[in-house]
Amino acid sequence: VRIHVTADQRYELYLDGERIGRGSERGDLENWYYESHDLELPAGEHVFVARTWWLPPPFCPEAQISARSAFLLAAEGVPTEMLNTGYAPWECKQLDGYSWRDPDQTYRIGKKVHIDGSRYPWGFETGSGDGWQAAVPIAEAGVQGEIVSHDRTWNLTPAVLPAMMEEPRRIGVARHVEAIANDETRMVRVQTVNHLPAEADGWNRLLSGKSTLVIPANTKRRVIVDLGNYYTAYPEVHVSGGKGSVIRILWAESLFDEFKDWAPPKSNRDHIDNKIFIGAGDAFQPDGGSKRCFSTLWWECGRYLEIVVTTEAQALTLEGLVWRETRYPYDRQATFTASEPRLAGIIPILARSLEVCSHETYMDCPYYEQLMYIGDTRLQVLITYAMTRDDRLPRKALHVFDLSRQGSGLTQSRYPCHQKQIIPP
Length: 425
Description:
β2 and β3 (about 20-25) form a beta hairpin. By secondary structure, the protein is an alpha+beta fold. The mean pLDDT is about 95. The strands form four sheets. Strands 8, 9, 13, 14, 15, 16, 17, 18, 19, 20 and 21 form an eleven-stranded mixed β-sheet that branches. About 15% of the residues lie in helices and about 30% in strands. The chain is built from five helices and 21 strands. α4 runs antiparallel to α5.
């Protein structure tokens, strides 16, 4: 069976408890993308579950255009009343346990999450639990090119890009571990004299997937992790026990020499001693259950992590820290050689810069804005042409900027974006 799926704003689709896709690919209301999946379903009962979410401005990313919360699934090859939303007996419920964190300097990319495991509906992916109610149809969505006699909010069109890459990474080195008096560390410099090398080995074994790590009851720890490169990834935190504890994971491109609200100075990014960690990220609050897995609704990015763990009366077992790297799935086909060795040495850095700025659109930067600006994109497209034969992301960029064209003939300077901006040059 072939199914087509989309949501305003985002969804994750599960089949029999396993995630099979994410979306919707970013566009605008006149070009609202849907993903298609070809599934082999053995005879018998199956359960489709979609986790969807919708955030209003300024909670949502600036790059996210939206009308209202909605979800659609349409199937080919089976009767309409079997699977299609609006016809089949879909049910829905609100997922509890979510609250929203200040994104700090990265305010353009939307709010971060705090997940309270004691209120979270564990196992929703299989359709289990109470509180499910009949879903309510709200509107029809038109298909691009279809002539209709009334207005429709979403003009559907097939996704033009492949699914984003998602590959688990067990990486990182704990370069600093310290005992802290409280979890407010924003202005606390990283000092080598406070490092606990005896504990760093346990963290490094956890990060590499070689062993679990027990954080004793009534303990507070701050850990600075160096991933060794720049990553865009969904964090996955696997835990057992630790009722009432909090795990906060902030991400940063670099540590800062001093604190300033705007453009804090950075020196050598390899150095962390006597520097300040200013980052954005999420928090997870275990409920004491076993084999819990916490993750985020959207990916995070950077090279450095600050992990702050605070436990209460019950010890916490960290069973795994996995960074699920995501980005556009480039097949890099070009090679480069030069007689000047310094040129060969920077090629991996340049290629990595393009990779982490390539997702459902190009991005000026994955950390602060995640917006596709036309000036940056022109250069990124040329680099893409030089590196690979895959021209799907360049084609989408050209199409999307044409969609942004104003009556004056000028394109918007960045698009998709729910705030209009024109830069005439």
